[in-house]
């Protein structure tokens, strides 16, 4: 049973300072003490609620993100994932796996990590106007030839049903469990084939104002779509600002 979800910001040593500086300011969090054999792990701590964003300094330079599923029984959850089509990559205190389409994720011990999720943050622009935002979603980016197996896998693994959608829909959110901090969104790409990957999404109630805030922190805009804006953080990691309700995640 999944009791909590955590998103990880992964990247090599060269991108580590930029990752931590940008995302603590973007999410109004502070850093925990580092941990791990080489101080390679850190948690981004909110002022309220239980943390669900962490960072990991990795041996590979390319910045990316991955999902941790916090469970009561790590070995059982890993075995269940493999039975559903995942591949086990590494087993230690946690288990590193990859989805049928190749997206890395981990199952880890819950260890009391569940709790109330943080509330959206309120920001004040230079002109005095206010808006709110919250990093609240991990989007699984799926090439067309891997779409159906990946969609079935994530529903079965989490036990979260897909929200009702029209046939052929390119965006399919899963209905997260009560109190879970992160939604999972499956996004079918125009790309015909390739490995499944992931990015983070921020819900906001004033996308232009939130875009300006992120650009002021060092991000750059890559493209603007009807319902979301794609940005790149200072370490080179893509993410999106979306027109969704920061409280409910819907929209």
**Spatial arrangement of strands, main beta sheet:** 2-3-4-1-5-8-7-6
Shape from CA axes?
Answer: globular
Q: Spell out the helices and strands N to C.
A: EHEEEEHEEEEEHEEEHEEE
CATH level-4 homologous superfamily of the largest domain = 2,3-Dihydroxybiphenyl 1,2-Dioxygenase, domain 1
Which residues sit in consecutive blocks of at least 5 with pLDDT less than 50? none
Distance between the termini: 27 Å
Which percent range fits the helix content?
10-25%
Number of strands: 16
What is the CATH topology assignment of the largest domain? 2,3-Dihydroxybiphenyl 1,2-Dioxygenase, domain 1
* Sheet with most strands: 8 strands, mixed
The CATH class label of the largest domain is Alpha Beta
Residue-averaged pLDDT, rounded? 95
Question: Describe it for me?
Answer:
There is one protein chain. The chain is an alpha+beta fold and 251 residues long. The chain has 2 domains: 2-109, 2,3-Dihydroxybiphenyl 1,2-Dioxygenase, domain 1 (Roll), CATH 3.10.180.10; 121-242, 2,3-Dihydroxybiphenyl 1,2-Dioxygenase, domain 1. It has 4 helices and 16 strands. An 8-stranded mixed beta sheet has the order 2-3-4-1-5-8-7-6. Strands 9, 10, 11, 12, 13, 14, 15 and 16 form an 8-stranded mixed beta sheet that branches.
